[in-house]
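--- STAGE predict ---
source: upstream dedup step, 1 unique chain passed
mode: sequence only
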Amino acid sequence: MLKKVFGKQHTSIGPEEAAALIADGGLLLDVREPAEWRAGHAPRARHIPLGQLTGRTGEVPADRLVITACRSGARSRQAAALLARDHHQTYNLAGGMRAWVRAGMPLQAKGGRPGHLT
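--- STAGE serialize ---
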């Protein structure tokens, strides 16, 4: 009954599992603010700020597994819950981009330059 009311559940995963899912065709959806994105984001990530996600869910491919990410994991949990209502498999990056960086995963800025967290 709860699934019918709230939609599918989402799961939190770590950066290594997220990287493996991305390598297998999953989409990393970064929901941070534009300034955070410009400072540094994961290669191949797509950017839709959380505040815009409700009106832009049609831009998230329904045929791909989605991993949501923000700085710490709080905003991306909200995004994962929103997307899980309409999407198949939705995961949240536990610890967000902080955990991504701690795990040694790359960040890039405009033009492919090395990025950083803000």
